[in-house]
Amino acid sequence: MRKASTALAGGLLAAALAAGTLTAGAPAAHAQISDDVIRIGVMNDQSGLYADITGQGEVTAVRMAAEAMGGAIDGRKIEVIFADNQNKPDIGSNIARQWYDQEKVDLIIVGGASSVTLAVQAVAREKGRINIVSAAAASDHTNKACSPTAAHWTYDTTALANGTGKALVQEGGDSWFFLTADYAFGHALERETGEAVRAGGGKVLGSVRHPLNTPDFSSFLLQAQGSGAKIIGLANAGGDTINSIKQASEFGIVQAGQRLAGLLVFITDVHSLGLKTAQGLVITTAFYWDQNDETRAWAKSFMERMNGKAPTMVQAGSGSAALHYLRAVKAAGTDDASKVMAQMRATKINDFMTKDGWIREDGRVMRTMYLAQVKSPAESTGPFDYYKILRSIPAEEAFRSLDITECPHLKK
């Protein structure tokens, strides 16, 4: 087992996957693997408000992908290390530099606050190395901050706006007020959902921004309540979403006639809230563990490793991303970033989570998204039986068109 360096104070909480099983395939001498190891670094929130969404669950999902490849490619072992970026861009970029330059990490799968993932993507772009974002939403990853060696895997703010936002406007929710996390992700989600609301004939009556990981939403909720908007859009995530929904319930906001729109809600949030509080929420998701036999089988294996916790869509997304990357390394016969990325783009994504997905030129993974509604306690028949899928959202409907891209390497 190899442990990641602890030189960055508070930055690295490293652990490695010990795996040396040979896979079938070409002789080891044919593989062009730098330092004889395929090394994946998972960098996310291990201790803060996004830890349940990302955390050890993401690490576990990536390890499962390594196991699915037999723990090695052509005799070169696959190693997984991880670190806590603490949702701080400076820590994230410092870890990325150390991993790429000193730890010989081939791929960084990064999640947490979008401000961190954008900083890490900038480092990867500078160094011509591969990074994949699963657990962050800002669509800037594939727009003005795009990179030729990056992929935005699971979802983004455009898909959330085109899913939940459009659906609620069509149901009559034509006036909105936003409660917004005050950083890149929240700003992007408010902006793009607002655009979807206005495009559907609705109005945005205002917004208020709150600090990341705030414990008290009372003043923000009072402003939202006072706006008279039919829909209070929660442009936040994780612990902030949980706390804002709980406190809105305490204030009787929904009982008084306004509706909450959880624009980014994870199954872990629903579990924390309980179905009595979360029932009826309309959400957009890329994955639900109970969709089919394949998702159930993968989730069962995940839950056995995670003490019964159900996987979030970003944890599943990171497992899918790692598997696609490792298959590309095997097919290309090298861990050279440009060759592996070319192979990843040339190959359809097909696994337990994604069917016939592909990586677009701007790095956006084009996948089917799903509009779902949280079940009532009476509708749920067992543990984590939380969602009913309302409809599929085709990739071309969910994500931004390339016709309006600001991606620098695609602009003519």
Walk me through the topology:
Blueprint: E1 37-44, H1 55-68, E2 72-73, E3 76-84, H2 89-101, E4 107-111, H3 114-127, E5 130-135, E6 150-152, H4 157-170, E7 175-181, H5 184-199, E8 203-210, H6 218-227, E9 231-235, H7 239-251, E10 259-262, H8 267-273, H9 275-278, E11 282-285, H10 293-305, H11 313-332, H12 337-346, E12 358-359, E13 365-366, E14 369-374, E15 387-393, H13 395-398
Parallel strand pairs: 1-3, 1-4, 4-5, 5-6, 7-8, 7-9, 9-10
Antiparallel strand pairs: 2-3, 11-14, 12-13, 14-15
Q: Say which CATH homologous superfamily of the largest domain is assigned.
A: Response regulator
Shape: globular
Overall structural class, as computed from helix and strand content, comes to alpha/beta
Q: Mind telling me the CATH class of the largest domain?
A: Alpha Beta
Tell me the number of strands.
Answer: 15
Number of continuous helical runs: 13
From N to C, what is the helix and strand string? EHEEHEHEEHEHEHEHEHHEHHHEEEEH
Distance between the termini: 47 Å
How many separate domains make up the residues?
A: 2
- C-alpha Rg (nearest Å): 21 Å
Helix content: 25-40%
CATH topology of the largest domain: Rossmann fold
Largest β sheet strand count, sense and barrel closure: 6 strands, mixed
> What is the correct CATH architecture of the largest domain?
3-Layer(aba) Sandwich
**Ranges with pLDDT <50 over ≥5 residues?**
1-29
Portion of residues in beta strands equals: 15-25%
Q: What is the mean predicted local confidence, pLDDT?
A: 91
Largest sheet: spatial strand order: 2-3-1-4-5-6
